[in-house]
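Might you be able to review the protein record set out just below?
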Amino acid sequence: MNKYSLLKGHRSKILQFNFELLLMKTIVRTLILFSLVIVMASCQKEASSYKAKLNIKPEPYDLEFERYEEVLFNLDTADFQNELMRIQNRYLVFLSGDLNDPAAVQYLKDFATDPFSVHIYNKVMAAYPDLKHMEPIVEDVMAHFHYYYPEIQLPTKVFTCVTGVTADVPAVQLFDDKMVISLDWYLGDDEIYDQIGMPKYMALRRNMHTMAKDVAKELYMNYVYQWRKQGKIVDEMVYNGEIDFFIETMCPTMPDSVLLGYSSKQWQWAVENEGAVWADIVGNRRLYDSSLDSYIMFFGDGPFTQAYSNDAPSRLGEFFGLNIIRSYFSNNEITLQNLMNRKDLQNIFQDSGYKPKK
């Protein structure tokens, strides 16, 4: 065999080796790509399966709306008692007291003429010159609730009002067949909330986007809530997750950040650090802790969770609870009503198949 033949054979082996190497690389790339597609599809299926169950089209629910604040702040203060009596039957939900009592009349007059109350009223009228944006928000929540609980008699009338952003008066209240919504809780106005000393992290939630959440929460507390004794951290996660999931069911298009009262940046932090925080919770045996310190750490409201980061949102227990319930609803055939009635919270956790993203 001459030198040229040896060289030619050697070159042929090199070409064959390069071809096999290229083929192996192609196969590896294909397998990696296929695995990624499978993983992405699996994640997408897990993420969307509970959403698909919530994708319902309820029948419209029509409500009648009346603006008590507009009437109250425009009464003739020179004849205030008679003016109140004139409107009492129409606004009995606000004026059920004895209007022959001078002290009661004076209390209402002081409120309606107080400079700060008038200032808030003017802010409300500027933010809500009419209710055309608010009405469909409330009616949509009611329509979803009626879809899931058709046997419950719901309010047919909504009254708006101004309460002076008083902490002991809820933003949304139910009284038999009437709902009352205090519009001064939804101004998105830092100046007003600063004046009453509201913390910044709370003031950021006080806008119309949270109105649907507050309506849904009030419906839950009035018609669905069942008393229970406070339990371990895992119990509280599942319990709070159920409430948030109920709200999500009533408001299925609500952004996750609004649902939990987080900023977009805080929600992103929670998502990106879900695996690390969960590993800390499990690793330090906090899931089955029932101490007050642990409860405050995971469910206490505030600007952040200092134990993890100044960027970490508060109430991380709610974040995990919501994801646990989402996973449970995705992986089990169960109705919303049956889920809300279940009291075996730890079994729900065990059956959820929850696996945090790493």
Notes: Residues 1-15, 17-23, 30-47 have pLDDT under 50 and may be disordered. The longest strand covers residues 157-161. The radius of gyration is 29 Å.
